[in-house]
Structures are given as C-alpha cells and as structure tokens.
Amino acid sequence: MYKLGIDIGGTFTDLVLLNETTGELNFNKTLTTYDNPTNGVIAGATDLLSRAGLQFPDIGTIIHGTTLVTNAIIERKGAKTGLITTRGFEDVLEIGREYRYDVYDLQITMPEPLVPRTLRFGVSERVDYQGNVLTPLMEDDVAHIVEELVGRGVQSIAVCLLQSFTNPVHERALGNFIRQRYPEIYVSLSVDIMPELREYERTSTTAMNAYVQPLIDQYLNALNSQLTEIGFLGNLQIMLSSGRLTTVDGARQKPIQLLESGPAGGAMAGVFFGKLTGHTDIATFDMGGTTAKTSLIFNHQPELTNEFEVARVSRFKKGSGLPVRIPLIDMTEIGAGGSSIAYVDKLGLLKVGPESATTESGPACYGRGGTRPTVTDCDLLLGYLNEDYFLGGSIRLDKAAAQHAVEEHIAKPLGISVREAAMGVHRIVNENMANAARVHILGKGHDPRNYSLLAFGGAGPVHAFDVARLLGSPELIIPVGAGVTSALGFLVSPTASERVRSYVCPIARLDWARLNDVLADMEEEGFHFLEQTGHKSAEATVTRMADMRYMGQGHEISVRVPNGILSPLSMVELEASFGEEYQLRFGTTIDNAVIEAVTWRVMVSSLPVFFSPKRANIEQKRIEGGKDFSGLKGYRQVYYSGDTVPCACPVYDRYQIRPNEYLSGPAIIEEVESTVVIGNRAYVRMDEHRNLIISLKR
Q1: What domain count does the chain have?
Q2: Inside any domain, residue 662
Q3: pLDDT digits (tens, 9 = 90+) for 109-148
Q4: Is the distance from CB of 377 to CB of 405 less than 8 angstroms?
Q5: Facing residues of 4 across strands?
Q6: Which helix (H) or strand (E) holds 74?
Q7: Are 555 and 585 in contact (CB under 8 A)?
Q8: 198 with 549: CB under 8 angstroms?
Q9: How many angstroms separate the first and last alpha carbons of the chain?
Q10: By three-state DSSP, how is residue 341 classified?
C-alpha cells in the first residue's frame, strides 16, 4: 500500500512516501552523506516513516535514484578495468572521432579514457558488417590476454569486438570464458550494453559500464542488506535515465543506465503533473544546489535521446566528454544552482557559476565555513528566503555572513551597493537559465511561448517566475512538494525494458521477414522482463522506434514505428513519419533522397501510475487575514527586479491556502521544502490537488 521514493542528490537526499490507496504524501529532505550515501538514506527514511507512524515492514516498494554512477566517472573512482577488442582497434578510445571541441584552443585537453593503454588488448578475430565470420576467435589468444589482465589486477573487463552487434558469437564465447575461469571478475559485453553500430560510442559505453559495475553492485548489495536488516520485505526498484524503472539485477548488469536517474525522475513528474493539471505540453525547470535542468514534455511524453556525454573536460562544451549511448530523457543543463558562486572576473564583469560551493561548506549563509557569495546568499539578502524557516526551520541561515560575502567579493570590487550586487546576481542567473531553456526548446522545433513551465527543486520555485516571464510562458506551475519532485517522479514512473538492434538498410530494400523477426524477439524479451517484475503482459504497452536518416548523413532522428506485422505497405507510413519529424526539427525535407533505417528500438512498459495527491499532516484550518488571504503569515521587505526600495510583500503559508482560492502578486509562499517567489501582475490559484497555478498573462 505504501511506496517510498528516494533521490540522492548533490546536496540533499529527497524522500517521498506515497499511500497508493489514498494518495496521501509525506516528504523529507536530509543532507546527503557522501562518505556512505546509504547512511543518509536510512536516516532520512527512518525519520520520515516515524513521522507518518509507520515502519519499514509497512513499505511495499522502494524506488531509488542516485548520482553514484555519474560521480564515480567524474571523480575517476571506479574499478580498475581492462578492455578486450578486435586486434588493431585497441586505441579507439583515444582516437575517438578525431574531433576538437574547441578548434581555437591550441592547448586543448581531451578527456582521458577510463581504460589506460596498458590494460587494452586486441584479440585475433573478425566479423564483417553482415555478420559473417572472416577470422575465427583464437582460444589460445583469449586465454593469454585474460590471464594477463587478471595478473595486472583488473576487477572488471569490457569486451567490444568489431561488428559484434551483427553476430555476437565471439563476444559470447569471450564472456563465457572469463566467467568460467575467473568468476570474481565482472564482465560487460557490448552486445548486452549497446548492440548497435558506431564503434567508438559502443566501446566507450561498454568500458564505462564495466568501470562502474563493481561499485554499483557493492552499493546495491549493501543497501539491500541494510534495508533487510531493518525490516524492509518489499520490492526495491531502481530509476533509469530513460524515466523507467528496472530491478536491482537489471541495474547491476547495466549500471551505466543510471547516469541521469535523478533528473529523469523530475521529467517523469512533469508528465504526471501535466496530466493532473490538464497541460499537454510542459517545460520542466529543475533547479537544485549545483545545476538547473530543463526538459520538454510534448503531448504528455518526454523527449528521449540516445546520445550523452559525461565527465566533460569543459563542462558545457559539447565533445569535451566521454560519449555514452543509452536511452535517456533529453534535457539541457546549466551550471546555475543555489550554491553557484558569483564572482567578478578579470575584465570586471559579474559572473555566476558554473563553479559551486562545496557540499561540506555550502553557501556563506549556511554557516558551515563557506565564505564566497552564492545565489542562495543573494536570494536571502533580497528577502526571498526566510532565515528562520529554511527547510522548515531545520537550518537557520546567517544573513550577516551572506552580506559580508557579497560585500567583499562583489559590491566593493564593482563599487556598488550590496543590494545592487545581489540583484545583479539574481538577474544574471535567471537570464542564463532562460537562455539555456529557450535554446533547448527551439532546438526541438518548438516555441517556448506555447509551453507552461513546471518548476521544482529546492531553488526552482524561487527563480521560476522570472525565468517563465523571460521565456514568455503562459503559466507557471509549482507542484505539491516542489522541493522533492524528482523523488515523487520515481513513484509515478512505469517499469519498462528497452531492447535495441542495429539493422542498417534503405527502407525501400528492407527484408520485412527479417525485420519482423527482430522486432518480435525484442518484444518477447521485454514481456519476459515485465513478468519477472510481477506485471501482467496483457497490461503492457509496446512502443517501437527507428533511428532513421537520409542516406549519407552522419546522424539520425527517432521515428515512431507502427506495431504489428510490417510489410512493404508499411514503407509509406515510415516515410511519412520520417518526413514529419524531419520537417519539425529542421524546417525542410530533402526531395528524392533515399531514407535509411539504422537502429530499431522496442520498449515494453507497464502502465504509468496515476493518483490524486494529498499532502499529509497539513492543517486545514483557515487563517483569516482578510478576503482571499487565507494562510497569510505576515509581511517581509523584498526587493524585486527594478526596485530601488523594498516592498512590503505578503508572505503565505502554502499549507494553509485552500484549494480553488486566489491571490495576486507580488507574494511569497513558503513551504518546508522550498519557497515560491511571485512577482507583479500575476494571479495565483491553488488547484484541487494543491498545486499552485500562476497565470502570467499580462
């Protein structure tokens, strides 16, 4: 009856408890324990359950998302990993695409491969592009290479042979050999991790999976054991970067798919709240401690991609990181969070981010040793935050420390007042986030003025009003439990399995019998996975996609493929779908060009979860403060953009505002997990699900 969502973030660990029968929600937010993330999870969950009058045996399902995979790759704290590939291709990780992400940088630094040259070996074998064996696998060669890698102390081995996605016989043989001879060694085969063309991306993804597999396996084992010890008897599921759920065993086998599990929860929450509030198209805005992320929900579906980079040398320069091809929700990221540091550069210009205050010290106002000014410090000085009610009063903010940091590092160097400095930081970070979101939405062929903005995260509701105004959004939505929305997104995500196969062919020359066999095999594998998780095949949905392009192009776009048996008559529908998608993205099509299919994808998914949320333990007693002013706590001196003097801004308790009540801006609405800042010329309504709907129409 109860489900618990747990999102381990960069600064805080968020927890959401759902009663599936009543829709009742309970929230908790606790500092992330970096030395051992499990400690923070257990402590936060124990506190949350205690306040709800429950114990761990009462929980049927726990859904977990973590940044552990991303952190391990960025910080290079994964396992010692070896790579076995086809002889002559040992250096593909360093050769890459021979692409310079900054052509004008003469001292350019490229990302260091996760597997050093001394641990990369080539084996004698060869398969052609049609899957024909040209050179058999040499067993003596295999035995010597594996023995050498084990002797050099590797914990994990990645196997990625040329053209193996067309015929995996050699990779399977290699994997079986390693597992039989050295069962303690972790093995990642490219045919299991990324069975599609593009040798560099496939090798990089497989090596990355091998690099983090021992760490994730040990972490999940420890988490499972501790949960069992304290009485949890239910089902533990893991959030994937695609916005779908998998089993613990699935996460152990393909931990690379956990790269963006936390942000994916936020996007799936966008799908849920879009349906709940009747908004078909939504842009999500998730601003936390270190970054802000935006994703697009179009027709109640998140935008998906298969291309991503991790551990970038230059954080926001495409091409400077390690490529990985996994299904994930497409989103843009900018280094703008509550802990982003503001500074004056060598040219005397005010800049914000991407550097952030460390998790241990935090912003200056946290009183934990931080001395440099951050976005949160400026928000406090402008009156947006309540120094006595941050996280419901669990953390008291030091306003004097914030003022000193802003004065010393920004106001004095620029010769301006502390208020002007704080407002400058606030406006710059809002402009940066709005520009990034605008470029992302326009790049998808959509108009940001047609999308309502759903804002969440600890800092999101503080900045969302100005970001929405800059984007031209018609409405701003602040969901119930905005500070922990990503964890809530875990609870409404379906369990699913996506299978991938490359079959490169012009659609006019497709072997339809072969294609139907490939699609049927992938569907069968997906149904089998769902049955293992306790879902009925009859209630599952099947989604087919194909990566297609004009012949000769280097990149593809994803196109919906009809279900059922395909035939030559299906070619017309595929061509039409490709043309529509190409026109949407690029504003044109290429007449008389040959359309080529490259990779086929099948997702088998359980039905999404839907419920009517009710915040638990909320006092429903109305606080009278005048007409339509339910929940008024008082007034606070607040500076809005363009103001030279503060206004006496009304401050409301979100839990005391009744459904279907209205109020107008300027206003500040406080809750435990976040604070909502509303500017002038806006009308706010609390809907029947306790979401704040803010109309921005002038």
Answers
A1: 1
A2: no
A3: 888 999 999 999 999 999 998 899 999 998 888 999 999 9
A4: yes
A5: 17, 62
A6: helix 68-74
A7: no
A8: no
A9: 45
A10: strand
Residue type at 210 in one-letter notation: A
Chain-centroid distance of CA 310 in Å reads: 12
Question: pLDDT category, 628, cuts 50, 70, 90?
Answer: very low
Q: How confident is the model at residue 316 (pLDDT cuts 50, 70, 90)?
A: low
Residue type, 624: E
DSSP 497-554: EEEEEEEEEEGGG--HHHHHHHHHHHHHHHHHHHHHTT--GGG-EEEEEEEEEETT-S
> Domain of 501: which CATH number?
3.30.1490
412: left (phi over 0), alpha (psi -120 to 50) or beta: alpha
Q: Identify which of 268, 231, 222, 220 has the alpha carbon closest to the alpha carbon of residue 60.
A: 231
Work out the angle at residue 304's Cα, subtended by the Cα atoms of residues 339 and 288, and round it to the nearest 5 degrees: 10
Radius of gyration of the chain measured on its C-alpha atoms: 26
Q: Give 234-254 as a DSSP string.
A: SEEEEE-TTS-EEEHHHHHH-
Give CA–CA dist 557/379, Å, rounded.
41
Residue 441 has pLDDT above 80, yes or no: yes
Buried residues in 337-351 as b, exposed as e (16+ CB within 10 A) = bbbbbbbbeeeeebb
Structural domain including 588 reads: 496-605
Element (H, E) at 113: none
Paired sense of beta strands 350-356 and 340-344, if any: antiparallel
Q: Are 477 and 506 in contact (CB under 8 A)?
A: no
Residue 107 falls inside a structural domain:
no
Lowest mean pLDDT among 26-30, 154-158, 254-258, 691-695: 26-30
The answer to whether 256 and 72 are in contact (CB under 8 A) is no
Order the strands of the 647-653 sheet from edge to edge. 632-638, 647-653, 667-670, 675-678
The order of strands in the sheet holding 557-561 is 496-506, 595-605, 541-550, 557-561
CA 146, 152, 158, 163 torsion-angle sign: negative
Residue 41 lies in a domain: no
How far are the Cα atoms of 111, 319, 320, 349 from residue 314, in angstroms, in the given order?
Answer: 9, 9, 6, 21
Q: pTM for the whole thing?
A: 0.86
Q: What is the DSSP letter of 407?
A: I
- The β-bridge partners of 29 are 14
| Per-position DSSP letters for 254-304, written without gaps between them | -GGGGTTHHHHHHHHHHHHHHHHHT-SSEEEEEE-SS-EEEEEEETTEE-E
Per the listing, tokens 């594998």 go with 525
pLDDT at 342 over 90: yes
**298 strand-pairing partners:** 301
What span, in angstroms and rounded, lies between the C-alpha atoms of 371 and 161?
A: 51
pLDDT at 333 over 90: no
Would 524 be classed as within a structural domain?
yes
Neighbours of 388 (CB within 10 A): 8
